[in-house]
Fold this protein.
Amino acid sequence: DADVTQTPRNRITKTGKRIMLECSQTKGHDRMYWYRQDPGLGLRLIYYSFDVKDINKGEISDGYSVSRQAQAKFSLSLESAIPNQTALYFCATSAGGRPGGELFFGEGSRLTVL
Amino acid sequence: KNEVEQSPQNLTAQEGEFITINCSYSVGISALHWLQQHPGGGIVSLFMLSSGKKKHGRLIATINIQEKHSSLHITASHPRDSAVYICAVSRSGGSNYKLTFGKGTLLTVNP
């Protein structure tokens, strides 16, 4: 099994629908992240969490919310999806305490909003 | 100007060639990461380094902190090395969780 698992891997939805992307990890890491990848723009940080009670906005959090249900689970929600949220979304984890600890990524969730 | 710049953006090579991808950055860092992303696939961390040089198989990563520059080398390239290679830096100090990413280098290795 993968260290970081994302579901669903692909999702097509309509404008206005609520969408949840889920992420679970078996690395035992405290830090979890949600990134968005768009062609030509690279990866951008949406939200990050250092533990269950510590959740922070990244550089592009508008239109998104997250929930850290447990150390191993971090979900990203789009309350009312819009077409410019069409992108490839990645969950990642890292260990804390080291300078910029190595990142472990999930396989990605491709979201298309029509 | 982007804080992390990669060159080239695209690179095509023949199998067996020596490949170099460059990364320059303009901020203080605690570490630099090289990541690999295959088409349609996830992202894999290749190296994390804060000084000197690291080697893993046919891949070598170097960093020059004074010049704010890193290189990723692939020796004896193979078609399976075809992927996007992404450079990312962890900021120094209290923001070390925050990664700034380059836009990636698309490598195609032809048989």
